[in-house]
Design brief:
The structure is a homodimer. By secondary structure, chain A is an alpha/beta fold. Chain A has 24 helices and 17 strands. In chain A, the strands form 5 sheets. The first copy, chain A, has an 8-stranded parallel β-barrel, surrounded by 6 helices. In chain A, strands 1-2-5 form a 3-stranded antiparallel β-sheet. In chain A, strand 14, helix 16 and strand 15 form a beta-alpha-beta unit. The N and C termini of chain A lie far apart (59 Å). Chains A, B: GO terms for molecular function: 4 iron, 4 sulfur cluster binding; phosphomethylpyrimidine synthase activity; zinc ion binding.
């Protein structure tokens, strides 16, 4: 982060083609809602027809949820210096309950804005912040509780459905829509998501739409047990590595692979400026842990933290547009000794900072004692709470212990305080938990926190696989998602070892997309199986290109295939490298099916009419398992 | 596989150092049983002491299950041309119920032995095969049912425990032995595995010790629900790729990373010769699918297969020493039409071959009609059945359907026939199954197949992630292991796309070791948490080297760490790259704990005695969250 003005401008005005190029066979579409400015982005994957002998059967396109934002839209000219186009600006303004301030109201925000040393780093197009007008509550929860369906709510309803209604009305999709009934374990997922259902879930606190009024670039999304399971990714420079441009690149990269939200966990210098760049270019909700920045402001001395300093930091970040704050208000003084006999003590950074502060002052956590004031600040910008689990276990041994569950109960108490202010709330969860103890976490959270959306880190189901913790945690994540967790915080292969690079981020995201999708299927989310069915059909019919294009990572699927069978011709071959051309079970099955069809045999009838004679013909005709190439 | 005599000898006489070098901090140990020739291999990981201020606390070594065989034993001189030393030869001979034949009794085995063209490929030290003497039953199940504890049974009992008794008697292990009580879901795992328990489980058919009398190089292991969950790996050349030397290298590689058994699924030429090299150099049980080779013998024409040809193949392979055979005897003629309306038909190679045969002849599967004769052959060498699931689902859509479950019921019927002959049995399972349908598979298998060990491929919990199917299936595998599956067949990232290379094999194995270990923890296998506890303790105390050495893949853990913090000094630093030196939650927690200890505060007492005053001192003393470096 040395002086980089010219380089920075050159490099970041556009993001590289490698991270924005459209996926093969895919096009960006927008589904329009009840008004023309509700345009919900999705990705449509076009498929090749099925060829069986002389016949051709067309395969309808498959629509998938799309987190990539305008970066994958060829009609949008990306210029990071300008930031993304506004999606929600007009909606916010039309509500008439907010006002534009003359400038930042935080002291820190003002100081940074005036510091000439930072000119070369600063995002040039800083808008004046917006805040609720006095006496107004402008949160999505508040609207929902008053019975109002906001454009944001309609947007997420359309987004969740991924054109399910249209598919149901189109007979070409009948086979693709076949799906196992789910086992929702208490979730209550409707047959189709309506804007009114979204409103009711937000009103009840069972779902959150993180959408700060100062983040109009956001494409709204929803986090709740009765919706698609979401995944969060983390970026952030530390004092050791990274620059602003790398962080923005990581953001775009995260959106490309399927991150639904993103937390900026930077702890280095210039985190205020980095955040502005990230927010202005982010189509996904951005979360932060404000105590990290507050600690930077007191040079890392936890005991020097004060409520006033923290308050200023909250306002600073809220006015930039951060959509949710992790606040560790449940780390109470009396809980700290409960961690003394743990194998791995307190492993949450925020949790340890607050524990240290509590011990140093022998006072109750100021985040807890000032919680109502925090609610008032967050209410004024519609920032959602992500109530932090500062006492989460850092090892299997410490899972589900007294410290963890005591804090969870306090988070439930705080949830009700936040809801009194109509401030939206998520609850953070662990961490490291053996497989058979995972469900207890969800059940307790739903009970203690009144079904506020649960947002968990993994959990890792064993401690013994550093370098593979995306997998150890992906196992826990799929299960906890099924059990009722609304959002899964991803873990990369570098967890516990180092900072993730781009390859690690991609591995982490795809792993968590797998986990979230496995959970959606298990809960029986309507339409969730369409993509699986389409891909399996393509696989069975040797439509290799379609198989790649329908996969979560089309680029790697193709690359792996080509390692063994690089020739273009092989992508239309009726075999694959596992068995070679002479010996393919898929091919055999197709022969079996065609043969059965020729005999006029259906599954219902069985094989017994006149089959014996036909069988003789088949053998006489030289039927072979393989065919020459 | 062109002519390679000289190269082959040079290259394979020794395997490369890269795949046999000892893991850092580890040494090979042997635990001796009731007689000196029962020497059970394990790996012992030595740990550094914990340093807290002036004090030093020694950390006792951790013993882990070791599948790597003599390859990781510096005292064994490896020579692939000679094969591995005999482990079981004397035990088998001492039982006096087998005889050494003058040569192979299969026609094919005889023809290969006499073919001068194959001289350059042939393993030079071919032993004459051994077979049960007439009127004798020599299976482990037979001995068990007669109340006999074989050396094999004692060996696996010692192996399963991994020195648990010794740890329990040593007070240094008290903290490491803390473990969450499991949720065994009907498993019945004793507090310590005794040889008598092994015998009783084998007698009941709940566990299998695959141990052909012609595979004396084998280090015995056990597969059963009440033991550690095992993993199987696959190798095999196809007609497109690979040579003998590559297959042997893959075998050693598989053992290194933790494969408990290995299936040789070769379909190319020279599979007879390849198998001999693999068996003579394998410390783990080897499985095959004999129908693959039988099909090669009839040039891929499924309808040309005959019982006589198959029978000869079984004898050929049994006399080489194959420990378990996958036999698709449950694919009945009447089940084939049940697959006609499936999304992905029949995807098992063996299943499709037999389906094609049944249709072509309109006769019942000859593996089913000749099943008793198959049992008699397998009995004579103690080959275990792995009853194949030829109708397993190839997609989520087809999971748990009529075809799959009809076959499973037939496998149950065949299990009882095999048990009449005291032949050991495992049951193969899927495949592709959504998360919430996984348990049904185990429950049905345990019921229909009388608790014979279940051995499943994954299952994959979604179809949409080719190139990541080790992960989609690892999620299913961890769950199905917990629910009661005894062995998990690994899946590599290349599944559905191509043949795995060494990197893929390693990724697949580590993923499955994670899944198996997660299942062991969930079932509450005694001592399973020791390694997690030791690693977490090392992590918490910044003993980086110990953290690496205790991990499933020490080499990659170290490499990932070093990408961010390459300097040697950082491995003893009290921070890591995630937060940098100024801001580390682990460090903070240690400070908190030390502080609490200074105040004489225990978890029981709470923090309220005189803490306020002490807190003031702490602040006055300049307590800081970070320290200078």
């Amino acid at each position: 982060m040395s002086a980089i003005p010219q380089d920075f401008v050159r490099k970041t005005a556009q993001v590289s083609e490698a991270i924005t190029r459209p996926f093969p066979g895919s096009r960006k579409i927008h589904v329009t809602g009840s008004r023309p400015d509700i345009r919900v982005p999705m990705r449509e994957i076009t498929l090749a027809p099925t060829r069986m002998g002389e016949g051709v059967e067309h395969n309808p396109p498959v629509t998938v949820y799309d987190t990539s934002g305008p970066y994958s839209d060829p009609e949008v000219k990306i210029n990071l210096l300008q930031g993304l186009p506004s999606v929600r600006g007009a909606w916010i303004e039309a509500r008439g309950d907010t006002e534009v301030l003359s400038g930042p109201s935080s002291r820190y925000g003002q100081a940074r804005a005036e510091d000439p040393e930072l000119a070369h780093l600063r995002f040039a197009h800083i808008r004046a912040p917006r805040r609720a007008r006095s006496g107004h509550n402008i949160t999505q929860m508040h609207y929902a509780r008053r019975g109002i369906v906001t454009p944001e709510m309609e947007f997420v309803a359309i987004r969740e459905n991924c054109r399910l209604r249209e598919m149901r009305e189109d007979p070409r999709y009948a086979a693709l829509l076949r799906q196992h009934p789910g086992q929702p374990l208490g979730a209550n997922i409707p047959d189709l998501i309506t804007p009114e259902f979204v409103r009711d879930e937000v009103a009840a606190g069972r779902a959150v739409i993180p959408a700060n009024i100062n983040h109009p670039e956001l494409e709204p999304m929803i986090i709740g047990r009765n919706f698609r399971v979401k995944i969060n990714t983390n970026i952030g420079n530390s004092s050791l590595t990274s620059s602003i441009e790398e962080e923005v690149e990581k953001l775009v990269w995260s959106c490309r692979w399927g991150g639904d939200t993103l937390m900026d966990l930077s702890t280095g210098k210039h985190i205020h400026e980095t955040r502005e760049w990230v927010l202005r270019n982010s189509p996904v909700p951005i979360g932060t842990v404000p105590i990290y920045q507050a600690l930077e402001k007191v040079d890392g001395k936890a005991e020097a933290l004060t409520w006033e300093l923290f308050r200023d930091t909250l306002i600073e970040q809220a006015e930039q547009g951060v959509d949710y704050f992790t606040i560790h208000a449940g780390v109470l003084l009396r809980y700290v000794p409960l961690t003394a006999n743990r194998l791995t003590g307190i492993v949450s950074r925020g949790g340890s900072i607050m524990a240290k502060w509590c011990l140093a002052h022998h006072q109750e956590n100021f985040l807890y004692t000032h919680f109502r004031e925090i609610c008032e600040i967050m209410q004024a910008y519609d920032v959602a709470f992500s109530l932090g689990d500062g006492l989460r276990p850092g090892s299997l041994a410490d899972a589900n212990d007294a410290a963890q569950f005591a804090e969870l109960e306090t988070l439930g108490e705080l949830t009700q305080v936040a809801w009194e202010h109509d401030v939206q709330v998520m609850i953070e969860g662990p961490g490291h938990v053996p497989l058979h103890k995972v469900k207890e976490n969800v059940d307790k959270e739903l009970l203690d926190c009144f079904e506020a959306p649960f947002y968990t880190l993994g959990p890792l189901v064993t401690d013994i696989a550093p370098a593979y913790d995306h997998i150890t945690s992906g196992i826990g994540a799929a299960n906890i998602g099924w059990y009722g967790t609304a959002m899964l915080c991803y873990v990369t292969p570098k967890e516990h070892l180092g900072l993730p690079n781009k390859a690690d981020v991609r591995d982490g995201i795809i792993t968590y997309r797998i986990a979230a999708h496995a959970a959606d299927l298990a809960k029986g989310f309507p339409g969730a199986q369409v993509r699986d069915n389409a891909l399996s059909k393509a696989r069975f019919e040797f439509r290799w290109e379609d198989q790649f294009n329908l996969s979560l990572d089309p680029e790697r699927a193709r690359e792996f295939h080509d390692e063994t069978l690089p020739k273009e011709a092989h992508k239309v071959a009726h075999f694959c490298s596992m068995c070679g051309p002479h010996f393919c079970s898929m091919k055999i099955t197709q022969d079996v099916r065609e043969y059965a069809a020729r005999q006029g045999v259906s599954a219902e009838e069985g094989l017994d009419q006149g089959m014996r004679e036909k069988a003789r013909e088949f053998v006489k005709g030289g039927a072979r398992v393989y065919r020459e190439v």
